[in-house]
């Protein structure tokens, strides 16, 4: 008679995960690691999600997850209370009451190789060897860093590339925004999952044809677009980071020993983008970015 192996403990799972996404790679301002949970508790089910919000927590609890891994931290600043009188306090109480641990992997997953931006690059079909847009100086091999640069198999118009992005990422209310001549050819592409304002200079310095990221603010994007040498594609923050979840789950499963570990993985499909609907969006480009009329 054969018996199933004992499930790994939360301590075991975290050790395996941190062997892939080292917390020391996180930015100094970040808050990654175990938020709540007993290290000795057994883990049979792990769910991955971008945001530790109420809907995601309920999905994890209803599925029976022993561990919820999110990309975004629940707490980025110090707190003096997790009383259930606050939204975040209620989430902590709900998780602990259900026996569901919470762990966050944020900028350490961003800078990992492969990491968040590698998954984004794969989602939109970039090929060839990817290199960091903003390399991590602490990595002697030069593989880790924020953002990635890759290429398309063949050049295509910015219009087609924007369609490619929209088709490769999960749909959100805001969709995909484009700055640049829609007929210009693009092949060399920079991507960065999440907010990418700080990488605009790096994208221009790298000489890429287009930079795909999220959360671009009006003034930096407008000033960047004035140069006309690099196009911009702005997608929803959540959508640019969601592709990493499946990769993170797969790498954790492998680190635990695959099927032998008998740990079930799940990726949340809940759209937790902050915006629920876009109203009054024009069907045609604005005058500044209008399509050529002499076709």
Automatic annotation (TrEMBL):
UniProt GO cellular component terms: cytoplasm
Record flagged with keyword Flavoprotein: no
Binding site residues for a divalent metal cation: 71-72, 110, 237, 241
Top-level taxon in the UniProt lineage: Bacteria
GO molecular function: metal ion binding
Keywords (A to Z) from UniProt: Metal-binding
One Pfam match: DUF34_NIF3
Protein family: Belongs to the GTP cyclohydrolase I type 2/NIF3 family.
Subunit description: Homohexamer.
Descriptive protein name: GTP cyclohydrolase 1 type 2 homolog
């Amino acid at each position: 008679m054969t018996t199933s192996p004992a499930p790994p403990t939360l301590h075991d799972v975290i050790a395996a995960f941190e062997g892939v996404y080292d917390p020391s790679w996180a930015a100094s301002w970040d808050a990654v690691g175990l938020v709540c949970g007993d290290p000795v508790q057994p883990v049979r089910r792990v769910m991955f999600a971008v945001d530790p919000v109420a809907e995601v927590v309920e999905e994890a609890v209803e599925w029976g997850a022993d561990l919820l891994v999110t990309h975004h931290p629940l707490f980025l600043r110090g707190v003096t209370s997790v009383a259930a009188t606050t939204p975040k306090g209620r989430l902590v109480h709900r998780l602990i009451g259900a026996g569901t641990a919470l762990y966050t992997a944020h900028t350490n997953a961003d800078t990992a190789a492969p990491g968040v931006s590698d998954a984004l690059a794969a989602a939109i079909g970039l090929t060839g060897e990817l290199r960091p847009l903003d390399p991590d100086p602490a990595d002697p091999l030069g593989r880790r860093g924020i953002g990635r640069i890759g290429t398309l198999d063949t050049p295509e118009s910015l219009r087609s590339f924007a369609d490619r992005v929209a088709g490769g990422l999960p749909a959100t209310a805001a969709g995909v925004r484009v700055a640049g001549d829609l007929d210009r050819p693009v092949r060399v592409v920079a991507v960065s999952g999440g907010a990418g304002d700080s990488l605009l200079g790096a994208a221009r310095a790298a000489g890429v044809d287009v930079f795909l990221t999220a959360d671009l603010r009006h003034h930096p994007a407008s000033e960047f677009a004035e140069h006309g040498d690099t196009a911009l594609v702005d997608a929803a923050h959540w959508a640019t980071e969601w592709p990493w979840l499946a990769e993170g789950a797969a790498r954790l499963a492998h680190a635990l020993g695959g099927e032998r570990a008998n740990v079930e993985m799940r990726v949340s499909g809940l759209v937790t983008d902050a915006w629920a609907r876009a109203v009054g969006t024009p069907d045609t480009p604005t005058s500044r970015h209008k399509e050529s009329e002499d076709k």
